[in-house]
Amino acid sequence: MTSFRSIPISTIDKRQIIDSITGIGKDSSLDAKSIHLVNAYTCVLFAEMAGNNPLLSQHSINLIDGFWLERYLNLKYRKSGLSQIRGPGLFRSFIEQPDAASLKHLFIGSTLANQVLLRKAISEVNPALKKMEFHCPPFEDMTDEYVNKIVADVKSSAPDIVWVGMGTPKQDYIGSQISSRLGITSFCVGAAFDFMAGSVKEAPRFFQKFGIEWLYRLIKEPKRLWKRYLWGNLVFIFLCLKDWTLR
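Structure (tokenized):
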């Protein structure tokens, strides 16, 4: 079993995910699952958490989204089968598939203005994809009432697939609840909505290639992201050292 501390990591690749959900493949292992894209910050938040951990649910599948998490796990397990699956790339690749048009998609998160841009971008990428619905929950603390309202809205919408772009950890809890309670596959894709909508610029390929996308985002939004990347990266290094010595 591949894992980082308490978090189990799946080795399924992007092509298998897309084929499974769109019905091309015969594998139904992703049905009614919440798909979590795990990076360094996700590990900081959830790797040491025992109770109420959405990544440990039987309905959850965890994929490697982080560059340095991929490097560490390939070193730890000495295998080349582990590969990074970036949330924005998975989102766009899925939307581009012709078979994606046969599904009803529900998008939860971002802002009303960005959702308008997202709808336009999706229609340009895949004109056949018409069955779309967008929900923009208010920015509030994640109380039981808040979660129940979102789950109820999803149920009334009756989508085939739910995309949650609300940021970690909120999206991980929301996605887990949607899949476990409603039996609907959900994807927790972070800033993928804003990237595809064009309201936020994605890091250039150079930053992605060398694992310093976090630096680009920190430069762009220092006030919002300094704690996540400066403090979070240090804690992630500590967790890697801890995990290595206890492996």
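The chain has one domain: 3-245. Residues 70 and 164 are 23 Å apart (CA to CA).
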